[in-house]
Amino acid sequence: METLHIALTHALPETILAVGVILMVLIGAFRGKADDGPMSEIAVVVLGAALVAIILKTTGSGIVFDNAFIDDRFGDFMKALSLGGSIVTLLMAGDFFRGQGINKFEFPILIVLATLGMLMLISANGLIALYLGLELMSLALYVTAALSRDDARASEAGLKYFVLGALSSGMLLYGASLLYGFSGAVSFAGIAGAIGGHPNMGVIFGMVFLVAGLAFKMSVVPFHMWTPDVYEGAPTPVTAFFASAPKVAAVAIATRVIYTAFPGATLQWQQLVIFMSIASMALGSFAAIRQDNIKRLMAYSSIGHMGFALVGLAAGTAEGVQGVLIYMAIYIVMTLGTFAAILSMRVAGHPVEKISDLSGLAKTNGTMAFFLAMLMVSLSGVPPLAGFFAKWYVFLAAVEAKLFGLAVIGVLLSTVAAFYYWRIIKVMYFDEAAPAFDRPNLTLRAVLAVSTVSMLLYWVYPAPLVQAAEGAAKSLF
Amino acid sequence: MSVATAFFYLFSFVTIASSAMVITGRNPVHSVLFLIVAFVSSAGLFLLAGAEFLAMLLVVVYVGAVMVLFLFVVMMLDVDFAELQKSAKRYLPLGGLVALVVLAELALVVGSWTVAPQAVLSTPTPGNLSNTAALGQVLYTQYVYLFQAAGFVLLTAMIGAIVLTLHHRPNVKRQDISAQNARTRASAIENKQVPSRTGVPVP
Fold it and tell me: NADH:quinone oxidoreductase/Mrp antiporter transmembrane domain spans which residues (chain A) (predicted)?
């Protein structure tokens, strides 16, 4: 076994988060006050340090901690996205929670714990590490959903999320135990070696249960039931968090499991992924049409987007993985920008979340209306905005893998989805003006502007993202 | 019949009998007590099988912690168990059907069961080590990452429970032992002259 020193160098971001979060717990406990004080800032510094550690990493990839932990470029890419999502969420959350009077110091701690879970999940190289990372992430998320505990909707959201999450964990564990029983290995490579090219019935059962458990976390059809209610009920910054970082982690581990543990069962998992992909794209497109709450709309939108990301996964090639990585990167930026706009929807100090509250925004706040409109255009995938390129890469990979039907269905459904995104633009530009929103704070304006501008100008200089994603995708094969 | 066999049958009989008492008992407190008996005799079975660590774990964790918690819950919540048992009968047909389907699926899986050769190799062969010593040797070396990760999961659960349940009400009087000890006669008692038929304002 390698020395602990080398192992910790490979797991440096996780170590930073783990030590940081324990320090934060101590600070919070000994400060003696229930409000958040400087905790958000400390959390941002801790997460930022982990992000810097990933970006400046000089060590090569490696597998440490007795096959439990893998450090590779795929993981680095996804971890950077998750950390970015967490940092932006924390920056946006402070003022909202202070306005609602639920600015507890535990919230930043829970976010850092959840992010630690995501990092461990992304780097998991075996079933046990996968489960522990997933539970660490999920437990912290359940609590943040119910954080505003005097609000009946938030409590309902938390409870629903917890019960369904526990169910999904049960399915995942069942699958994991079947896999261990039939392959005799807990590491992904060991499972792949045991399966060879001929998966037997038990392995396929185990794989289906395992993928179902992960699909819950990705919120893809048919495991999406919790998403709209939880997104609507949870406090808006928490919803923004749910829609960004945990999705990245869930997609990352699903990709890693499928590609490293089941290369010998491609036919079987491909059917599964294609079904989930088409069902998610369809539900995300059609069910969102009749929503009048923007958070519910974003829930269906995220279900649809996960469906599109799975198109790349279904391809089963390095190009497909590259498409998934680019998709997730662009998705997370668009989503965080949109939630910055949703968090800016406050009338006389009270948050509002109906789509009709956006009526005539172009007349009352032209800049915000323009930014939000551009994000909607990008989410619907119209060139030359970044959302188009995200879909382009996954569909290209699907076509190259000869999955023509999937690609055609995906393109058709994305035009259906465009309807409800464009309806928001219509509401903002052509409807009678609703009461004007309060002026959002600097962070929200900055997040909205940066997100929109990067989506608008992505086509000018796409090389860094594409190259990073290419390198990351290759490291899986 | 050897002594070990005799004890095996003794423990098995007690386990099954007390399990039956758990589900048929009308008084929930009796059910919990019989569950404790079932756990202790299962621990005896584990000991007979040579799994002394699991046996101790069962006694310490389940009997020591979980069952006491159950007892608290049963005593604090006024749940009408007779009513619950009635409704359980109503769901019996549907529940039985689901159980049958799951059983059929399990049979399907077990039917194709082949034990992988690696699985047989990966069973621990600790030699002359006891189970506890063998576990102790790998917990902080081979499995240190997973062990610490599990620790973080528990920390999260603890923080979560506190966040969701702890209410700091401003007007609740709390015990402050140092303040109690620092009290003197001078700070606690105030002499007042009370004029007849008027009274004093009470703070």
Answer: 124-414
pLDDT of residue B49: 86
User: For every residue of B120-137, which 3-state class applies, written as one string?
Assistant: HHCCCCCCCCCHHHHHHH
Report CA Rg, chain B. 29
Contact A113 B121 (CB under 8 A): no
> Of A24, A102, A139, which to mutate for an interface test with B (greatest number of B Cβ within 10 Å)?
A139
Q: Is A90 helix (H, G, I), strand (E, B) or coil?
A: helix
Q: Min CA distance, B145 vs chain A (Å)?
A: 6
Is A191 within a domain? no
Mean pLDDT of B23-34: 86
Give yes or no for residue B122 having a pLDDT over 70: no
CA separation, residue A103 to residues A100, A235, A444 (Å): 8, 12, 18
Other beta carbons less than 10 A from residue A226's beta carbon: 21
pLDDT in tens, A78-115: 999 999 999 999 999 988 888 888 888 899 999 999 99
Domains in chain A, number: 1
Per-residue burial over A113-137, b = 16 or more CB atoms within 10 Å of its CB, e = otherwise: bbbbbbbbbbbbbbbbbbbbbbbbb
Containing H/E element for A321?
Answer: helix A318-343
Q: Among residues B47, B65, B69, which one has the least CA distance to residue B56?
A: B47
Q: What is the fold, at CATH topology level, of the domain defined by B1-108?
A: Four Helix Bundle (Hemerythrin (Met), subunit A) (1.20.120)
